[in-house]
Each structure stands twice: as C-alpha cells, then as structure tokens.
Amino acid sequence: MIERYTRNEMGKIWEPANRYRKWLDIELAVCEAWTERGVIAPDCMARIRSRANFDVSRIDEIEKITRHDVIAFTTSVAEFVGEDARFIHRGLTSYDVVDTALSLLLKEAGEIIRTDLEALLEALKERAMEHKHTVMVGRSHGIHAEPVTFGLKLAIFYSEFTRHLKRWCAELENISVGKISGAVGTYAHLSPEMETAILARLGLRPAPVSNQVLQRDRHAAYFTALALIASSIEKIAVEIRHLQRTEVGEAEEFFHKGQKGSSAMPHKRNPVLTENLSGLARVVRGHALAAMENVPLWHERDISHSSVERIIAPDSTILVDFMLDRLTSVVRNLVVYPEKMLENLMRSKGLIFSEAVLLRLVDKGLTREEAYAIVQRNAMKAWDQGAEFMPFLLADPDVLACLTREEVESAFDVGYSVRWVDAIFERVFF
Q1: Confidence of residue 6 (pLDDT cuts 50, 70, 90)
Q2: What is the pLDDT of residue 270?
C-alpha cells in the first residue's frame, strides 16, 4: 500500500533524479556566483549552464568504484560539461551540496504536508459545523460523564490541527537554511557574502554558523513536528475506532460496496483505515527519536547521521502525507449515527446529571461534602440496580428537604448542559 503511494508527488521528491537535480542546482548557483566575481568567464559559464546534466545509472556505476556519492555525481556531470567542469564544486565540501539539498527536499516535502494539513482542517470544520448540535454522551476513563456534542469533539480536533499547522509553518522556516561554508565552516575558499548570494538563488538563507554540516537540532525539530502530527492523527483514529465498536456504534468508517471485513465472518465491518493510522503513527514517532539521536555528532562532523536520514526523511514525509490524506478521507466520509448517540446517552438512566443535582443542593446551602454524599448514595443505588436515577432522588427526604420536584427535574436537561456550544465554536472557528 505505502509502496504504491510513493509513486505520487511526495514519493517523487525522494527519487534519486530529484535529489541529483537539487545537487546540480546548487553547483550551478555556485558557478554563477563565481562568474559574478570574475573567476569564471561568462562564455565558460554559458557552456556549463547549457551542458550541465547527469545520468543516474552512470552515477551508480561510478559510485561502485569511488564509494563516494558526491564524487560520483560530479564525475558524471563532468562527462557532460567537458573541460569547463574544472570550475564545478570549486571551494565546496560535499556537505555544502548534500545538506543544502536536503533542506530543499525537506522544504519541498513540507509544502505538500502543509497543503495536507489545510485539507484536513477544512474537512474537520465542515463536519464540526454539520454536527455542532448532535448531542452525545461525553466519556472520561471510558465511562459516561456529561453530555457533549459530536461537533465539539471535531472542534477540539480542528483546534489541535490549527496548532500543528502553525508549528509546521515554523518548521518550514526553520529548515529553509543552507550552508556553503566549506569543509569545516570557515569559508576557507569563498566568503560569507558569497554564501548568502548563492543561497538566495535557491530560496534559502544561510545558517548563522555551521561546521561541515547544518546542525541536526533543525532536522530533529522537523521530524518531531511530524511525529506530533502523526500522534494527533492517531488520536482521532482511536476515537473513531472506539465509536465504531459494536457496543457503542455511534460512528463508523464508510464501508464501500464490495468491501469485506473478515475472511471468516461475513458480518464484520472493521475500522481498518484508522487501525492502520494508529500503526503508522508508531513508525513516525520512532523516526523522531532517531532524528534526535543524530544531534550529537563528533567534532565538526561524522557520518553517523547520514544513513539514518536516508531512511527517515523519505519515510516520515511520505507516511505523514499518506496519513493526512487518509484521515481527511475518513473524516469526510465518516458515517455518523445521531440516534445511537442519543440512545447511548440515555443508557446511564440519568446518572450523567449527578453534578447538576449536586450543585443545586450546594446552592441551597448544603456543604459540598453533604451534597456529594446525598447524590452519590442515590447514584450508586441506581447504578447497582440498573434503574432510573431521578426516582431515587425524588424518594430521598434529604433531597426533598432542599429541592422541589421541579428543581430536581430541571437538573436533567441535556440542552442546559450544552448551551455554550455556539460560544465555543465562535472561539474556535471565527
């Protein structure tokens, strides 16, 4: 499934041809800067510009001998450019090219993820508005609490993902840096001013200081932001999975015509899409930890981070792109059962209004401890007997000593419990 998905726009970002294209863009930007400073003659630059190219299979062939990917790349480019290739890679170290290109790739992937986040937010908002007043029971510890609405659940998810979008935009800014500062970051064979000009051509800004690499706290923050997104995706997925349980049955993934839920049990309609999202979130979180372990490198640089990033950069971005797209589809097509929500709300036989009764007793002058004891003893009778809560209250002389029948009944008002939904929505969406 994921392998098929990598053939789309996100997957193509991480194909060797695109990576090498970024490398070539950087090399040409450096040559252009040398030309502006009189080191490369304009006619020579024109030839470099027109001839510069590479061959992926040839790079692979050369690398088998050199055991060095950047040398294999520059050798392939030289075969296209000819004699003028002596100016290519002038004053650079390999990671001037590799790290700057990685920033370009992460930025390119990040723009897709930003679009994905915006699409999910749109879907969540649309369904939240649809179910703003769809009443259901709230649950804490999995146990019935007080009434909420399904729209409020979705509004919480929407608010959470607006924070993700804000964080993600910050991470795109954070990763949009490069370094053209030489072997150990001292600009031994070029200058900081030249670096700034080169990176400006590429849509990046220079890191204030670097050694042979960009510092990996930037990358760790990027992958941690992806892990946070994945975790919130799982949060929504877990909610849907719970709501789809047979005993709950309040919402479910859309079941397509011809879809099968079980090889043995024809009746099954399983939450397979959201279960899949829960599993993938674990992978993305693991990649964030790997990115953090890339932060401490030896001295001016070692290569221990490289093998890790070759895995986590494509995998994390491809996975989160896939997960956001899938979740957006699940939300848009989610089947909601308001009648079942109302039925489940009534299953506790009024116990969910215990706090409302408690507060009315307190308002009549009882201490909170006294009121709590009165309400709890009646609630436990109703709980143990599976009976309606209100009759026990109306039969309790301690309750009736403080409250009229009408005051007790008024505490069992679902509408009163969710009367501030519109005000909450104003905060979230407007």
Answers
A1: very low
A2: 85
Catalytic residue set: 141, 262
What is the C-alpha to C-alpha distance for residues 369 and 351, in angstroms, rounded to an integer? 18
Q: How far is residue 99's CA from residue 105's CA, in Å, rounded to a whole number?
A: 10
At 23, which helix (H) or strand (E)? helix 16-36
Q: HSE-up of 316 (CA within 13 Å, CB side)?
A: 30
Query: Is the separation of the CB atoms in 195 and 202 below 8 Å?
Result: no
Could you tell me the domains of the chain?
2-87 (1.10.275.10), 95-188+204-344 (1.20.200.10), 351-411 (1.10.40.30)
Q: What length is written for the chain?
A: 430
Whether 76 and 62 have beta carbons less than 8 Å apart is answered as yes
Alpha-carbon separation of residue 116 from 72, 127, 157, 331 (angstroms): 36, 17, 15, 13
Q: Six-digit token pair at 281?
A: 């979130």
Q: For 341, which DSSP code?
A: H
Cα 191 to Cα 26, 182, 186, 210, distances in angstroms: 16, 9, 9, 13
Q: How far is CA 296 from the centre of its chain?
A: 25
Measure Cα distances from 57 to 20, 61, 62, 76, 425 in Å: 12, 6, 9, 10, 56
What torsion, rounded to 10 degrees, do the Cα atoms 366, 368, 372, 374 define?
-10
Torsion of CA 223, 228, 234, 238, to 10 degrees: 160
Of residues 255, 250, 253, 321, the one with CA closest to residue 284: 321
Structure tokens at 74: 């520059």
Residue 124's nearest CA partner among 90, 163, 151 is 151
Q: How many Cα neighbours within 13 Å face the side chain of 131?
A: 28
Region of poorest pLDDT, from 22-31, 68-77, 251-260, 415-424: 251-260
Please check whether residue 197 is in contact with residue 248, taking contact to mean a CB–CB distance below 8 angstroms. Answer: no
* Residue 265 DSSP symbol: -
Give the pTM.
0.93
Buried (b) or exposed (e) across 3-26, using 16+ Cβ within 10 A?
eeebeeebbebbeeeebbebbbbb
